[in-house]
Amino acid sequence: MMNPLLIVLYLFLAYIVSGIRGQSSCPTQDISPCNCTENSNQGATVDCSSARSGAEISSALSKISLPSSQLWVFLIQDNAAVLELKEGTFQRLSFHSIKILRSSIKSFHPSALSPLQHQLESLEISLSRLDEFSFHNLSELHRLKELRLHNNLLTSVAAFKSDSLEILSLQNNQITSVEFDGRTTPRLRELHLNNNFLTFVPAFRSDSLEILFLHTNKITSVEFDGWATPNLREFDIGNNPLLKFPSAIVNGMKKLEKLQGYGANLSPTLSSGFLEFQSSALKLVDLRNNSIFRLEPGAIAGLTPETTVHLNENKISVVSEGSFRPILDILSMGNGILDLRDNPIQCDCEMSWLVHGQKYLRSVSGKCHNGTEFKDLDSGSLNPCPRECPYQCINSAWLSLCTSETVSHSHVHNCRPGELCCQPFIPKATTITSSSVPDFLIVCGRKNYQVTLSKGGKPSQIGKWPWQAAIYDVKKQDVVCGGALIQEQWVLTAAHCVTIQGTDRPRAQKDIMVYLGKHHRANMEDDDYVQIRQVAGWGYDGSDLLTAVLTEVQLPVISNRLCRRDTALFTGGFSTTRTLTSNMFCAGHSRSTSPQVILQYYITFVKDERDIENDDVRYHSDYRTVCPGDSGSPIVFLSNASQDSYWTVEGIVSHFFQKETCSLRRPGQYGVFTRVNRFTRWIEEVFENS
User: Where is the signal peptide (predicted)?
Assistant: First the structure.
């Protein structure tokens, strides 16, 4: 028989539990135009979607006397009336999550979130009209893990600090610049910056970052030096007009699982060593839609048996054994796939190795140009190909350009009549002209041979760099500025080189000529091939005499802060540097650089090549810089010395702060350059409208 005391106690406890469960999480007060609903697993949601202003929301929330721990989510959605949330909106309340979706919110007062600094874990303002956000206040939100500000009108991301933030979503804004330092966001795992207007990506340094999305911007260059993301798993830089793919960065990602580089301007050839993965976790390599024509042997290495490689939607016509068999040797060991769909592949004898080796067919997907699936090809109809040229087929007239031990005069099927097979070679000191260089050896912006990055300036070799332009003044009958050929029929130079002095009006077309392929200043000694190195120009030299030949020099870029400081010390006031804006940078040697170091690493512009041998000239020319007459000349950047490297115009010579002649200039007196990446959108618009 049950003890009556136990029955009473059981009933009493059941009553208490029932009372707790039945207690409402929502306030009893009228908080219209907001309303409150209870969640089954969490606290209450306060929905203010019907509010007509931020003031109405503040007034409604001020009526709540419920313990703050019972409120969980603050919500506004599908609201076109509320434009801002002001200071004091949340007062003493403690929401854990704020969601503002599909609204007209334009601003969020920096102090509005202060009452939530110890509770707020998630903040989302998306599909709205937010055009500014106080990132610097994030350090006050000690529990914030997710910040989602996607689909707004933000234009920049200032540097900020947050010890708790794990996910930052900023896609689909109008962001043109971002400042990021992983040391101030030690827990950040995901950063979404896709679908913005970025043109340049600074070096990311973060030990915590695992996902980085940069796709669908206007990125042309990525800073290599200092990049460190050892734990990055997903990297998406697709759909950008890259001038150079960040191969060195990708190859250093030892935990990479997914690389997405679709639509990244990789055409036409993937060179040997293009991608050399070091990650054993690699699952996806997406290089589709890049207008790729061919892969050199070893272009993609370091795959795993479980990797899917997308090369579909390209222009590959030949599946050569040397390039693709090493890839399929790895993929066929597991469930990896090589996707070659939507390529104009000619299924002829070049495919015999693939069809005869049946083990490869299950690891490759694609169709022939005639629509036949790879798996349906008849191995009996594909005989091995005749011997092909392992190097390049060139006109027999270019025999002198061949490396002797590689020359083959015997028939190879892929060389036409009148051609021979060899490995072309161009020595570093070549003096050949453009008319004597076969077209197949020339790719604008890319070296024809591997060079070691020089530490000293000197007269440029003839035929070295093909994009240098000379702006010729017909009235003065002399070269007055430099420039860079950046697209067919388009030369980039400084505006003042082609305008009437003191105005913005362009000079008459008949007064200006543009020389491409000019090495000597004197027309009587003109050459046919163009070259330049680092900063090249036609201006005065260290003896204040016009150079006889195009010259080159390597200069270090310094911070604008240091440039202003040193210039002020020379001129006696900061007003001199008022023309130094964020669209410009300085280059030259700082005041702390010793003459011995300068002399060791840099050679000035000289009047004539024979002056390099004159010790007296060298002694008095210990400072290297750009001079009057060099305006418009490009300063170019190359990340490494590999064969596939491309040069990028980082700036063009704009002006100088000091009026001294070049022979009197010293360290701390800099040349000023216009940042080209700040004007890429304008340049693209000019191209499109022409």
Answer: 1-22
